[in-house]
Amino acid sequence: MKFVTASGALVASTLASVAAPASASVPASARMTTCGTSYAVTANRGSGDISFLTADGATNFTVPLPASDSGSPEPMYVSHERDLVLVGDRASDSVVAFDPKDPTGDPAVVGDVCAGIFHQWSNDDLLVVTCDVDRAVAVVDLDSMTVRGRIDLTRQGGLSIDATQRPHDIVITPGGEYIFVSILGDFDESDDAILKINVAEGAVVDRLDLPAGTDPHLALSPRAPGLLYSPQQNLGLVALYHQDDLGAAQAPLVLPHAHGVSTSPDGRFMYFTNINSGGVGALETVRAASPTEDAAFAGPPVDAPGEGKPHNVAVTREGHVFVTHSGVTARLVSAYSTDGASSLPTLVAQYEVGTNPFGIAIVRYECESSKSSKSKASKSSKRLSKASKRIKGTL
Length: 395
Prior knowledge:
Layout (H helix, E strand, L loop, with lengths): L2 E2 L5 E2 L27 E6 L4 E5 L6 E5 L10 E7 L2 E6 L4 E5 L9 E3 L6 E6 L3 E6 L4 E6 L4 E7 L13 E7 L5 E7 L7 E7 L4 E8 L16 E6 L4 E6 L10 E2 L3 E6 L5 E6 L8 E5 L8 E2 L11 E7 L5 E6 L5 E7 L6 E8 L4 E7 L6 H17 L9
Antiparallel strand pairs: 1-2, 3-4, 3-29, 4-5, 6-7, 7-8, 8-9, 10-11, 11-12, 12-13, 14-15, 15-16, 16-17, 18-19, 19-20, 21-22, 22-23, 23-24, 25-26, 26-27, 27-28
């Protein structure tokens, strides 16, 4: 595999190079994870698999999603919660749950989640998923590994979406009180929007209408838990809103084609992609807002060269930043190190994963004492056992 500098020049690398991910035909012994190690896990929409990748490239392997009656899998996004790697499969309307300690083992499948799975987000208890065909939000209970219910966004009175609008991005607050959903409209017939859903009521309680074609995405940061971030691609900005009333929290940050976003584990910095930059200046670093300070750019952007559009972002606790390059034939993930003081990234390597890497998340599980490890393994096994068959949710 070639390694590149931020300017695109080829350089000799001191890291372990990986020509391509290990395929499912490689023995399972070569496709294992290790406790205490951070992995970027990509949902490869084009090849129907997920990739596990370390920042140094020493580990890079793929695991296929299970086939279904719907044909080839189409993994969209990935979350890590409760020692489960949760992948939304658009093709089969399901969520597939892998054990990160044994990723080649049989995954569990929660079936009939919804039609048109796209974005997802999780907290300790719930996985929430947007369904752009059903025009709904699905809520998966991580205790029972069942679909708790679906919220029909077309039946919300004066806050409903219409037939030309569809849900897209989604976040849920850490305590599970509220879900925020971005809405994409039709350029000619309807506007975009952001909806606020009260989880206990299962109902939309507030709505912010945005200009047609805004293409809003969403994110949260622990540094200011009352704020909602929204990179808005076609307005070329990052907006910040108060969660309580969806009012503006500060002047927006100007960022052309702002799209993907991820927060550093300590919440101090956020990383945004410029999806249509051609890789030039594709990754921006922002000092996250706090109760006393506005969000602000931390330094100049860095490049993400190569095939595909710099799309989604994930950050490890060690300060490595990963960016997926999405596209029909794209296979790249860019890896960055960050300066400890400024957290500004430096491109150190690019790796090949599966085709069209889309969503990305960081997966890490801690090394436990034998007693604690057995207890946690038992709990994880029980959760996977509960979902070992396709489970139908109810409306």
